[in-house]
Write a structure and sequence with these properties.
5 helices, single chain, Oxidized Rhodanese, domain 1, 5-stranded parallel β-sheet, globular, alpha/beta
Length: about 190
Amino acid sequence: MTRWLTSLVVAAAALAAAANAQQPVAEPQEYRTENYRAPVPATLAGARVLSTAEAETIWRDKTGAFVDVLPRPPKPANLPEGTVWRDKPRLNIPGSIWLADAGYGKLADVTESYLRRGLERASGGNKAALLVIYCQENCWMSWNAAKRALTYGYSNVAWYPLGSDGWERAGLPLVDAHPEPRTGEEK
């Protein structure tokens, strides 16, 4: 009886693990416009998908420009008057340029212009330069931004889906970041 019960428990655990295993996510044709923090596909047509080791090699060899597109946390609307608001710190891969909010599925014209200018700056105006686009793990923002870079004519786009989370897990350095200013926000 004990042997049968043990077998039953093991079988139930295996079934539960299989049910909880992440199902592959199909690559959509369009940009993701909701539920941005969810499992991402393993591919991005036209772009190279990087592991942490590959991203690290590019970073150490300085052969690509790293672009972070994580959104900037919004200031809470219900803060009492006179409350000091400080953005949540963002740690990103050293040398990255942070184009905050540039990974949404639908971009306002001003944000799209901000992304275009940022990619031009990161690439030095060279559409064949390697761009490594990331945010956090399971974040569609970087997938959207990398896909959009391809539509702008960039031919050497790499997507790093593990982002700063994967980088940190590998024990690689992170630095405090500040978003690139938008037109009119220059310091």
